[in-house]
Every structure is written in C-alpha cells, then in structure tokens.
Amino acid sequence: MFNRKGFTLIELLIVMAVIAVLIGIAIPSFRGMQQEAKTAKAQGDLRVVKLAVEAYNAKNNALPASLGVLTAESNAVISVVPTDAFGTGSYGFAKDTGATPRYYAIWSIGPDGTATACTISTAGIVTAGGATQIGVTNGTPPNSNWK
Predict the structure, then answer these.
(1) Which of 16, 23, 43, 98 is the 20 to 30 A CA-CA neighbour of 9?
(2) What are the residue boundaries of the structural domains of the chain, listed by start?
(3) What is the dihedral of CA 33, 34, 39, 41, to 10 degrees?
(4) Is the dihedral of CA 10, 15, 20, 25 positive or negative?
(5) pLDDT tens-place string over residues 94-124
(6) Rounded to an integer, what distance in angstroms lies between the CA atom of residue 31 and that of residue 34?
(7) DSSP per position, 58-78
(8) How far apart are CA 137 and CA 124, in angstroms?
C-alpha cells in the first residue's frame, strides 16, 4: 500500500481552477458594488453641501460665490466641503446669471468621470454637463440623476 502524505498534481490543478472561477465571478460584482457606493457617497455629500448653501443663503441673504466660502471663518456653515467621490477635485458649483442670483446647482463629475460644468438659467433650469452627472439644485433638475 501507498502511504500518501500529499496531494497529486491533478488535485492541486482542480482546486486552483475552482478558485479561479470563483474569483472571476466575484470581481465584476465587487466593481459594481464599488460604483454603487461611490454614487451613494456623492448623493449624500451633495445633499449636505446643498443644506450648507441653503444655510449660508439664509444667514447672508445671498448665495455663496463658491463652495469654499462655506468654510470661511466669518461665515462658516460647514467645517469641510467634501471632495467628489468620482474624482480628486471638489464638487462643481454654479449660480444663475441674474443680477441677484436665486438658483444654483452643485454637481459631481459622475461615474464615467467625463461630465463638464453645467449651466443654470435665470429661470432655474439646469443644463447638465453629461448624461451620468449627479447633482442637486434648487431649480429644475435636468434628469433623474439630479435631485
């Protein structure tokens, strides 16, 4: 009789093949979950920044010149403006072009990372800078990615 103390090469190859198949199934699911997590983070961040803009507007009776103003010592309404979940920079911010702006938009570059600046009319109608752009506005949102 044989006194086996190890595995054969075939047994090891079969185990490695099974592990490779499981990894091949898991990686795409993991990437999809990462994308969903970034989208949820961006949506949450944008709601927080929108509340900060509203608080600034209530306190100063004017919209901020930029998101950076929200953290200024004299008018601080938020401790830190979060960075975009899909990029390395900050979220975008635009106001309407009226003499006394009333409408604003705050946006993320979105999952594909190609979105550009959006525009907002004096009537509050937002034009998105990309199909996957995520944003918030107190005007009329351009699509279902906006709130």
Answers:
(1) 23
(2) 40-137
(3) 110
(4) positive
(5) 999 888 899 999 999 888 887 788 888 888 8
(6) 5
(7) HHHSS--SSGGGGG-GGG-S-
(8) 9
The structure tokens 């006194």 sit at: 3
The string over 24-49, giving b where at least 16 C-beta atoms fall within 10 Å of a residue's C-beta and e elsewhere, is eeeeeeeeeeeeeebbeebbebbeeb
Helix (H) or strand (E) holding 90: none
C-alpha distances (whole Å) from 123 to each of 73, 101, 103, 119 are 32, 10, 8, 12
**pLDDT at residue 29 greater than cutoff 80:** no
Q: Report phi then psi at 134, rounded to 5.
A: -110, 135
Look-up: residue for tokens 């920044």? Answer: 49
Residue that has been written with the tokens 């103390």 in this structure = 5
Nearest 5 degrees, angle CA 79-CA 85-CA 91? 60
Looking up tokens 């919209």 gives 63
Three-state DSSP at 52 gives helix
User: What residues are paired with 107 via a beta bridge?
Assistant: 92, 135
pTM: 0.77
Domain 40-137: CATH architecture, name and number where available = 2-Layer Sandwich (3.30)
